[in-house]
Amino acid sequence: MSTLSLAVRDSSTMLRRNLLHARRYPSLTLNLLLTPIMLLLLFVYIFGDTLGAGLGGGRSEYIAYLVPGLLLMTIGSTVIGTAVSVSTDMSEGIIARFRTMAIHRGSVLVGHVIGSVLQSVASVVLVGAVGVAIGFRSTDATVVDWLLAFGLLVLFALALTWIAVGMGLISPNAEAASNNAMPLILLPLLSSAFVPVDKMPGWFQPIAEYQPFTPAIETLRGLLLGTPIGHNGWLAVAWCVGLAILGYFWATAKFNNDPK
Amino acid sequence: MTNLAIAAEGLHKSYGEKVVLDGVDIAVPQGSIFALLGPNGAGKTTAVKILSTLLSAGPASGGIRVGGHDLATDPQAVRAAIGVTGQFSAVDGLITGEENMRLMADLHHLSREEGQRVTAELLERFDLVEAARKPASTYSGGMKRRLDIAMTLVGSPRIIFLDEPTTGLDPRSRHNMWQIIRELVASGVTVFLTTQYLEEADELADRIAVLNDGKIVAEGTAGELKRLIPGGHVRLRFTDPAAYQSAAAALPDAARDDESLSLQILSDGSQRDLRSVLDLLDSAGVEADELTVHTPDLDDVFFALTGKLEETVR
Question: Which stretches are transmembrane (chain B) (predicted)?
Fold first, then answer.
């Protein structure tokens, strides 16, 4: 069997295993969905009028502004679960067994990554459905825009997932993994998800600007709502590709080290 | 060298200052059971982990070949030849026993039908049919260990590593496990097992190596090891100090233990030997309250070689 077909076959076996875990124990994934949904409802129904007024509109304008950011935040939240499950998995004896089997070495991690990206997409669809239910409508998005938006979400999920897998691998236990991955859900709070960067204090703007969430959010907004994307599109792709490559090499290096 | 399933020269491993394995040579012929015997912390698990490609060997190690393949240059070929059951159960607790088996079948690239056949056969053989659809985390210790071995056997490995396969098992499960191991070897498989139970090594192994502090301190068959030390003796216990003193006078060669009022006389345990001891006691007019005959077993070898207990060499 060639290396590639071995890799594909073993990775899909590992993916089946991870999806089985997720299906049998959905509580972790569902708990992580609560954060973005709570924030969505909180910001729309409690702060929405005021924040919408600040944008020169009302609550319905604020829903439109908020949803793209929360869709990306959902990914940040879902991958915390990835870090936790990778860390838990590594402490199980079954991983030692995999390491002594003649299987494609990377398949264990690839299975986790693909499983997690699929979970992220499912979570985004759920949070998106809540957004639509409370009044979010995409304005003049074409089919190409929708496909690009979907592609961006998948690419973003892939990037954050590889980083989260690395975080899971360096964490000695589930609690540490959850703590280490915390920045992935805190970063969107410091991005343009809730208020525009140019409405933030001047000293804070660089922090909001030079991080992966802001360009990705601005690009998604542009695709779904027709706001100007500018250089954010390329920036978002560059961030995603950079993080994915970094996370991939970091995680595989950690995985190939002698287990402790 | 071709008829050796496992051949390792000068196995070394250290973590910083701490030397775990200090030049261990291992040679296991095909189709035999080899037991690595040693106390906790002797380095048994580390040796298994290195030979099963889980850990890299220390740079000072010599050549290591497992199943005819070089461990350093072709670890994948080694992995294809071996099966490993570690000390801590290597089952996926979140999925059922049957799913665990199917997972192994998929990773060994068996066809669907073949996977189903092997799964059903092994679940049956290891008495796991009833529990097959329950999550493995709900299994008892003995059931987990059986599932673990069953998973190891899915790929029909020619060499099997068993790291303390009966630790924590009740006596019945232990005997079941021994039976399983004997059946494996009967089918031509080579078994490398570690244990801290002398009885287990004596019961199963063709060759035994005693590992202590990262070094092999003795190696041979159970019989050869037993011959290494003169462990056979007769032990006489007294309750009356006066009787003890006169017996000690009558048996000048005996080792004395004044505290417990007991005497230990070297003996091969034969009838003639015992009679001469009893005759000496009779002529001195003393009677022992208790007489026990101790034939050398691996315990004597083990304790003598690993220096954990001075009692047997006193």
Answer: none
